[in-house]
């Protein structure tokens, strides 16, 4: 049961998909904005003890995270 979280009566493993899409799918997630956004997401996850399992900035119109 490696990788699972345990409490007195439960064993669980919760994963979330988070997809962030810009309004009207404008292509604004590029260049320095994309780099800074990645840094902010990583810092926020580290501060809360969240592990990012997979991430992608696909086609510059969305950010996909699997945590």
From TrEMBL:
Pfam families annotated for this entry? Y1_Tnp
Which segments constitute the Transposase IS200-like domain?
11-57
| Record-given protein name | REP element-mobilizing transposase RayT
| Native source organism of the sequence | Peribacillus huizhouensis
